[in-house]
Amino acid sequence: MKTNKLFKNIVWGMTLCGALCTTSCTSFDELNTDPTRMDEVNPGTLLNPILYETSVYNWKRYNSYTYDLMQCAVSTSSTNGVGWWYMTDSEGDGTWTTYYKWINNAKEMMRLTGKLPEASKQPNYDAISLTLQCWLYQILTDAFGDIPMSEACSADEGILAPKFDTQQQVYQQIIDNLKTANELFDKANGLIYNQSGEMLYKTSKGDATGILKWKKFCNSLRLRALLRVIDVPEFNAKQELRTMLTDPATYPVFESNDDAALLAISGTYPEEAPLTRPQDFTSYVQISEFFVNLLKGWNDPRLQMYATQVTLPDQTKDYVGLNITVPVFLCYLWGPASQMLITKCRNALNIHLLCSVLI
User: Which helix (H) or strand (E) covers residue 239, if one does?
Assistant: First the structure.
């Protein structure tokens, strides 16, 4: 009897376990489908991440590298920083990998629009993709010279080691691609996949104003590229500039900072600011003597908006830069140096991609 009862218990237990496993598997399959996530991407879903991630990276790179390299400010906590001309071989690694990552995403926008039926083509996404690619390629070639462009981000085509194009070839392609992008923009359509508006100009479906601003961004980038090569005969840059500037209807460009490519982020997840504390601008950081004297020599009105004044031995106040030609512990023998004006230091919630006038 005990044996039969034990056997029955084993059978019932195995049956119950099998039922539970079957139920669990079914429930898991249902739970594994997230109703809040997209099943597939479209060109519009790629746009905001490209804008946000590249802009935040640019700001961080500026704050941690370019800012110090150009002697705008110097760390006083050590002499191992970029501001003290201490460089390593890996300084450009992040720039290279980050920009190519987002160039690939920008190219994916065009790949996705290429799969749409002819009647559903969205040329504005192609135009924006080309504009953003050119923006990033110009940063890369200005930093590194010869770079992969014509074969870049083509692993799907079996190209795992893309050739390097010369800087002249890269600039020529940038200028040509931006001209193509300008012709593709269609103010009548807007951005159909960005119903709530994209991050840069808030462009949505049927938004002619937003598309016009994107077009100005595109052409202003082209102006900048042409100015960079104005003395290179092969580009005929002066004639191209003349053509653009005498035909604003075809080639609209930035007219004021109202047109600027200014990315405004909320500061809350997922649009977190690259620097969250204003005091990080000034903690163990002072403005260099080179930068202060440069602005003084220009009689530049931005100095009073940018820097603090220090009290001199005669009790007068003036802007004084940190002398980095001597060891850091000797700098203080000359007295305090100017810092960034803390009242002007705010959360980095507005990031310029490109602007026309700096004030």
Answer: helix 237-245
| The pLDDT value given to residue 14 | 61
Residue range 119-138, pLDDT digits in tens: 678 999 999 999 999 999 99
Tell which residue, 104, 106, 96, has the closest CA to residue 61: 96
Q: Is the pTM of this model over 0.90?
A: no
The rounded distance, in Å, linking the Cα atoms of 359 and 341 is 16
280-314 residues labelled b (16+ CB within 10 A) or e (exposed): ebbeebbbbbbbbebbeeeeeeebeebbbebeeee
Residues 6+ apart with CB under 8 A from 337: 286, 287, 289, 310, 320, 321, 322, 331
Angle, CA 69 vertex, CA 65 and CA 278 arms, to 5°: 55
Residue 92: what pLDDT?
72
Which residues contact residue 345 at a Cβ distance below 8 angstroms, ignoring those fewer than 6 apart?
A: 278, 279, 281, 282
Question: Which range among 120-134, 158-172, 255-269, 290-304 shows the weakest confidence by mean pLDDT?
Answer: 255-269
**What percent of the chain clears pLDDT 90, i.e. is strictly above it?**
48
pLDDT of residue 332: 55
Strand spans (E) along the chain: 74-75, 261-264, 285-286, 310-311, 317-318, 350-354
Helix, strand, or coil here: 134? helix
Residues 6 or more apart in contact with residue 314 via CB below 8 angstroms: none
Distance CA(254)–CA(114), nearest Å, equals: 30
First to last CA, the chain: 95
Tokens of 283: 């903690």
Q: Residues 166, 141: contact at Cβ < 8 Å? A: no
Distance (Å, whole) CA 40 – CA 37: 9
CB 343 within 8 A of CB 297: no
Burial class (CB in 10 A: 0-12, 13-18, 19+), 45: middle
Confidence of residue 152 (pLDDT cuts 50, 70, 90): very high
Residue 358 pLDDT class (50, 70, 90 cuts):
very low
